[in-house]
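[Automated response] Your request has been received and processed.

Submitted sequence:
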Amino acid sequence: MSTPHRTDTTGEAEPVRLRTADPADAAAITAVFLASRTAALPYLPRLYSDEETLGFFEHVVLPSCTVWVAEQGEGEQTRIVGFAALDKTVLDHLYLHPDVRRRGIGTALLETVRQASPEELSLHCFQRNTNARAFYERHGFTAGEFNDGSRNEENEPDVTYHWTAR
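Generated structure:
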């Protein structure tokens, strides 16, 4: 296992540290994913149980992607509040716990992903997720292909976003 990469964001009421995720983080990552989707995407169908979702992060995402977590607190009070997963040049996931949105944590995670893929990135975003779309557009992503939902399990219309270094 490699030494975790750590970065402190500035200007936070409570400091946030970014580090490379390890397998022991799967349950906390799953909890962030589930809480975020419930709060921000209530229209999505719930296709999998919590246990199946945990298995997905344990056996698919963590082994196949580079994953970073954002954590707050110290010692036993440390908790993961967000994460990003990069598969080559595709940002597969960027989720924050609902109670830490709009504090610069998503931007810090995105900048870490850009350092790992400095030439280009792409991602899929649900068309109805206007907050996420606005976030990516503020960070220089442009909308590309719009899809009717046939390429995702939720059958929810999505859009592919692209970013390239200038």
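Summary generated for your ticket: Confidence is low (pLDDT under 50) at residues 1-12. The two ends are 34 Å apart (CA to CA).
If you did not submit this request, please reply to this message.
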